[in-house]
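in:
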């Protein structure tokens, strides 16, 4: 992987991670269109750490309160009813599904799930699910109403993002909307919930960087830094946007991209299985 390729993929990661359009799908598609081959699940997992650092910067004060309250709740009974401590436990509970399913489906994540025909299909299907959720969701609940079953529901939706095209934020926000949460609160919990999964996945895959046919450390670090800077700008914009606007533009984009991807595959312009991981 060259430096230019790393910059482009870092930009793509930063631009798409927090939008409900699937960053992993865009990394896969961008590389395929440019003729670079599949950057691989390991590279994708590691550079996502950059965008999660943007989450820490944006929600820094809130995350600090959650960590402090959660830590005290471990040994001080009076802290166990604190809302921030409760949120800490709910983030842990919601992270369980993606950890379990990620370990169970390791081989499929690196191979089967990266087929561009599957990516195109889930772009369209989960775009329609997001449209439905945004239309029928009550949008009345806040994170104060978050329960353990709801946290698990969010977590199961996040686990679906192991398939490129689903979108971590798109899947979890759709689940939140269907459960009656506001757009902003569903997105906030989605971003908080992603942190353990992304950092865990990135650290798990980091040993594959610089090994064999995998990307080198230099370009990977550059892509991670670019994704951090761009990701922070995007999350800042998105949290303002969804307070007064619907997800319809993202739904339209997902449907158009999925349709275009099918057309490119059908005409032989793109090989759905191209790339070193396949």
């Amino acid at each position: 992987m060259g430096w230019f390729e790393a910059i482009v993929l870092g930009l793509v990661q930063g631009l798409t991670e927090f939008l409900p359009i699937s960053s992993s799908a865009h990394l896969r598609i961008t590389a395929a269109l440019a003729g670079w081959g599949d950057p691989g699940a390991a590279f994708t997992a590691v550079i996502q750490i950059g965008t999660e650092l943007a989450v820490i910067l944006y929600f820094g004060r809130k995350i600090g309160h959650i960590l402090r309250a959660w830590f005290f709740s471990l040994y001080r009974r009076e802290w166990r009813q604190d809302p921030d401590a409760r949120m800490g436990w709910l983030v842990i509970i919601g992270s369980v599904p993606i950890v379990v399913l990620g370990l169970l489906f390791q081989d499929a994540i690196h191979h089967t799930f990266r087929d561009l025909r599957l990516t195109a299909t889930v772009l369209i299907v989960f775009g329609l699910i997001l449209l439905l959720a945004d239309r029928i969701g009550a949008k009345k609940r806040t994170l104060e109403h978050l329960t353990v079953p709801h946290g698990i529901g969010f977590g199961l939706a996040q686990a679906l993002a192991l398939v490129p095209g689903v979108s971590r934020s798109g899947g979890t926000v759709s689940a939140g909307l269907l459960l009656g949460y506001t757009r902003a609160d569903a997105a906030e919990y989605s971003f908080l919930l992603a942190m353990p999964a992304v950092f865990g996945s990135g650290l798990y895959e980091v040993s594959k960087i610089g090994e064999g046919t995998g990307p080198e450390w230099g370009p990977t670090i550059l892509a991670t830094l670019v994704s951090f800077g761009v990701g922070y700008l995007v999350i800042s914009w998105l949290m303002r946007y969804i307070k007064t606007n619907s997800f319809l533009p993202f739904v339209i984009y997902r449907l158009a991209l999925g349709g275009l991807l099918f057309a490119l595959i059908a005409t032989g312009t793109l090989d759905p299985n191209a790339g070193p991981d396949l």
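note: The chain has a mean pLDDT of 92.
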